[in-house]
Amino acid sequence: xxxxxxxxxxxxxxxxxxxxxxxxxxxxxxxxxxxxxxxxxxxxxxxxxxxxxxxxxxxxxxxxxxxxxxxxxxxxxxxxxxxxxxxxxxxxxxxxxxxxxxxxxxxxxx
Length: 110
Description:
This is ABM domain-containing protein. By secondary structure, the chain is an alpha+beta fold.
């Protein structure tokens, strides 16, 4: 299978936007235990209850291991009242990517 990115839309329930943001920070990094190459959680500026969780994997099977794994299942159960259901992710094949690379800089500025 091709490398890809899972796009997971989360929508916080009333007055839970900040709490859901903190909870998503907690679960997003768990993806690396399942082989994720990177992860991001985006918060919409026009609608502060809307989040997009992006996770990149080398294959969809690894993503499904994360999505259906014990940490994510427990997390979804624990925070079920903080977001609207159903949560329907989409899998996107990675066509190309790019970006700038930066050289490492020492903390003292050297």
